[in-house]
Amino acid sequence: MYILHKNKNNSTNFFFIIILCLFSFFINYHYAKLGSFPIDTFLHYDSAHGILNGELPIRDYWVVSGLTVDFIQSLFFKIFGTNWFAYTLHSSLFNCLTTVLVYFFFLKLKINNLKAFLFSISFAILSYTISGTPFVDLHATFFLLITTLLIINNLSTKFFFLWVLIVFLIFLSFLSKQVPATYAIFAYSIILFYFFIKKKDFKKIIIIILSAISFLALLIILLKFNKIDLKMFYIQYLDFPRSIGSYRVNNFEFSINTFFNNYKFIIIPALLLAFIKIKKNLIISEEVIGFLIFLVFTIILIFHQLMTKNQIYIYFLIPILFGFLEREIDLSNYKLKKYFSIFLILVLAFITTKYHLRYNESRKFHDLTNLQLKTAVKANKIHSSLAGLYWKNPHYSGNALDEISILNRAQKKISSIKDEEIMLISHYNFLDSIISNNLNKPNKTFTIDGASYPGKNSKHYDHYKIFLINKIKKDKISKILFFKHEKISPKIITIYIKKKCYDSYEDEIFYIFKLRCFN
């Protein structure tokens, strides 16, 4: 009977995994195509394409994050070509991977497979689908989530190679974005080393430390091999982003009402779980440490979300916290337990529907609305490689077809330039992949909030100025172009180049700066 039951359970799990894979993949793939906020939707598009052409971050253009995402996306472009399908295949597969891993985590919590399946469906809806396309914060967060789940599941196991994998994944998270990985490295290290020392499990400590040293050495070797200056890596990827973080912390404004309204469905189950744990048992055990790790992970993500200027994307925590609740609530009356489980599932269904309508249907993460999406048009009108995307830029005030007309004319104009090297300053992070001319962009993004490049008041102003001037010289740039309708401030260039070194004029599409010298 046991074997029959086991086989039946395995068959059910296999069926649920197949459904979860298909659902998590296609829900992300579907919503990714609805609308386009160029600076975020295509954040890793041109940069990944550039890697295939020998253009490397830090060395050839200024970056502050996203290394892992760029290189992974370049592999997808290498295999499937530089196109919209390969771009959303990446994020959709990532949504599929994390959803299945979360399902296995629920099973590890001894939640029955039907409930684990329902919780995982909620996770798939609330996780990567919010963005749909590869995005730096999401990759960093989900690499850290996978790390966290592996830690919880392997506190007492003797599979030491998994700790090497855990260190590797947290490196991938850090190289996607410095935070929240940095917070987790410090917090997890304190908790884990205390626990392992208490358990006299020194072998795991040694493996973690040696793995960290090995991956750090490998990173340095790869940087040297690709002729990426270590000092510039430190400035661009470590010190400059740290100064941005310090500024945000110092200028942080907090409202209890806004905080609770935004995060109530995360805070309430987390507090309830903490209360249950304290009441049940204060003995240091694998179970207690595992929950503490996940609670710290939740706190880290909330803090990270408060410090960023992105739309909220951490509602995927809700189904996982509800999964913990399903396991922890231990009522003596079976009927009450059964009713409580039904209540949890119904509440989670309500919450999932609420945020699905707000973030997926309306594409709020990319600043779109249902009304705007109704006017979206097929992006293959821009280029055949964008087939599958429905174009609607929330920051273009006119008709989508008018914007596409501008982009088509711009492509022809730039392609007609044969005897000069240009530099394009634009939020359209896909143009470099569809225009034969090299656009020689100095940055991945050009925001004016101080997060894309060091401004006049930054201590790294001189470093960026030298970097920019050297790039202009190396690439033999003669003209710098700005789209007129994007209204990107010319100060992005003019605060680094003296007035005597350029002439400025405009045509029907661009503001143009003709360079005469380099300072």
Q: Could you give the distance between the termini?
A: 83 Å
- According to DSSP, the number of beta strands is 6
User: Order of strands across the widest beta sheet?
Assistant: 3-4-6-5
Indicate the proportion of strand residues: 5-15%
Number of helices: 20
Overall form = globular
Overall mean pLDDT stands at 91
- What sequence of helices (H) and strands (E) makes up the elements? HHHHHHHHHHHHHHHHEEHEHHEHEE
Low-confidence stretches are 1-5
Secondary-structure class: mainly alpha
Major sheet: 4 strands, mixed
- Rg (CA only): 25 Å
The helicity comes to 55-70%
Report what the structure shows.
The protein has 519 residues and is mostly helical. It has a domain of 123 residues. Helices cover 63% and strands 5% of the residues. It is built from 20 helices and 6 strands. It starts with a helix and ends with a strand.
Summarize the structure.
The chain is mainly α and 519 residues long.
Features:
5% strand; mainly alpha; 519 residues; globular; 6 strands
Describe the protein's topology.
Blueprint: H1 2-32, H2 38-41, H3 45-52, H4 67-80, H5 84-108, H6 113-126, H7 136-153, H8 161-176, H9 178-198, H10 202-225, H11 230-250, H12 256-280, H13 286-307, H14 317-328, H15 334-361, H16 370-373, E1 377-378, E2 390-391, H17 400-415, E3 421-425, H18 431-434, H19 461-474, E4 477-483, H20 491-494, E5 502-506, E6 510-515
Parallel strand pairs: 3-4
Antiparallel strand pairs: 1-2, 4-6, 5-6
Helix pairs in contact: 1-5, 1-6, 3-4, 4-5, 5-6, 5-7, 6-14, 6-15, 7-8, 7-9, 7-13, 8-9, 8-10, 9-13, 12-13, 12-14, 14-15
